[in-house]
Amino acid sequence: MPPPGPPPGSYSPQMQGHAPNSRNMMMDFSKGIATEVRYLLAEIGKLRDERRQLQYEIAELMAVKSKFSSNGEFQPEWRPPQPPAIEAPPPEEPPADAGPHPPAKAGWRVVHKRPERKARTVPKITAAPTPPPPALPEPPKPEAPAWAQWRPNPLLAPTPVPASAMPNSPPPRAGLFGPSTPPPK
Question: How far is Cα 142 from Cα 145, in angstroms, rounded to an integer?
Fold first, then answer.
């Protein structure tokens, strides 16, 4: 029968009798693993951020592509419809030679000067002139300045409002944190 213990090929420092040393080795090993796990988690975070950035860029590119595709917002292939072609008029047959052409009108036009008008020597008298209306007498000039002559319209004079109809002023408000502090003297 084989002696009780670990299977052959396995190493256990506790079996060797090195208990304090093995505890230090376990602590070192767990610290090393923790450091590696931290590095790996940081790298995973970076990779996740890069993946999100790439997905965002792909989405932007697909949006631009859809805008420029045939049914998108921008259609580079679209052209305005061509108007129907205008047919040229049929060529006219030259008229038979009827002789020399009449001379063309001059390009400059002649401006005839108006004859000078004669001044009238005797004015026409049609009817007797009507006498001008009598002048209105000028109002007497007061000695007071213009602003002192102004009188208000009594129909538009303001009437005093009775004191009972006026709303009372609101009571003094207390501040958010109590009554306000009096100003310094």
Answer: 8
For residue 17 the two structure tokens come to: 């009798």
Q: Considering the domain boundaries, does residue 49 fall inside one?
A: yes
**Residue partners of 44: CB distance under 8 A and separation at least 6:** none
Q: Per-residue confidence of the chain (185 residues) as pLDDT tens digits?
A: 555 555 555 555 555 555 568 889 999 999 999 999 999 999 999 999 999 999 999 999 998 888 877 777 766 566 777 877 777 777 777 666 666 777 777 777 777 888 888 877 776 667 666 777 777 767 666 676 667 667 777 777 677 766 665 566 666 667 677 777 777 87
Total tally of structural domains belonging to the chain: 1
Classify residue 185: in a domain, yes or no: no
Q: Is residue 159 part of a domain?
A: no
Domain that residue 64 falls in: 20-68
58 part of a folded domain:
yes
